[in-house]
Amino acid sequence: MKPSLFDYVAPRSVDEAVGLLKEDSGAMILAGGQSLIPAMNMRLASPSRLIDIQNIPGLSHITIGNGKIAVGAMARHREVELHDGVAAANPVLRAALGHVAHIPIRNRGTVVGSLCHADAAAEMPMILVLTGGSVQVAGSDGGREIAAQDFFQFHMTTSRQPDEMVVEAHFPALPPGAGFAFEEFTRRHGDYAIAAAGCILTRNGAGAVATVALAACGVSSKPLRLAAAEQILAGSRLTAADIKAAGDAACAAVTAPGDMHATAGYRKHLFATLVRRAVERAAARAQ
User: Fold this and answer.
1) Which of 106, 129, 159, 204 sits at 20 to 30 Å (Cα–Cα) from 236?
2) Is 262 helix (H, G, I), strand (E, B) or coil?
3) Which pTM does this prediction carry?
4) Nearby residues of 214 by Cβ (< 8 Å), 6 or more positions away
5) Integer Cα distance of 39 and 30 in angstroms
6) Rounded distance, CA 213 to CA 126, Å?
7) Which class for 133: exposed (0-12), middle (13-18), buried (19 or more C-beta within 10 A)?
8) What is the CA radius of gyration of the chain?
9) Among candidates 149, 132, 209, 133, which has minimal Cα distance to 178?
10) Which of 285, 278, 159 shows the shortest CA–CA distance to 226?
11) What domains are defined for the chain?
């Protein structure tokens, strides 16, 4: 199929891009185009104007400092995946990025573009939620930072305003000694997740869980933190019973209806297994 008619502009600054967004509520930002262009071809998206930001300087950075990883709006998936500094600061990003589509897609697609697309089964929105990250936006009324839990609202829906552009994503570095894991099930490697779970945890001197974060994608209308499962694991010794209870509690987060890939019951069973596996692997990596 072919997209509907649209105008095309390539601004040279963030201010110019924001101005174009403000004057046309039907405009959309084009970065890597690996999600937007297929959506346009299938008429799932019909922007009146494409604002191509690839010529704006200063948006391709990947910087690490002050306890966080800052990823610019034009930094490609593959660049972040292969960045050794990122892997050292927060290895869960590399673990998840290896599951994002295929290498040719990751060579062009951008991390921030994936966050803005906000597919409920995509890996990077879930990682932003798991790590407690945020996005930095620029708008006609100035800039603001939006926490991950406030950014994702529904499938392909975020709290970004029509005249705002996401210029940077922030992923916190892992605390010393933290264990991590990312577990995903798909029909084929590179597909969107039927279900996926991520875990980050630390232990105290006695070996009990000091802090824990669990998140999911593919099971609801947006990426989620699994608060009930986290409460079960907090302070626990991670016995088999603790981990099973956390997996069982996580099933309550599965609200996606049955589809051609999985019934609702199968997805719940699958997700409980992925959560248990993620906790076990994160625990094994925690120091």
Assistant:
1) 129
2) coil
3) 0.97
4) 130, 197, 198, 199, 225, 226, 229, 230, 233, 246, 250, 275, 278, 279
5) 12
6) 12
7) buried
8) 19
9) 209
10) 278
11) 7-52 (3.30.43.10), 62-172 (3.30.465.10), 179-285 (3.30.390.50)
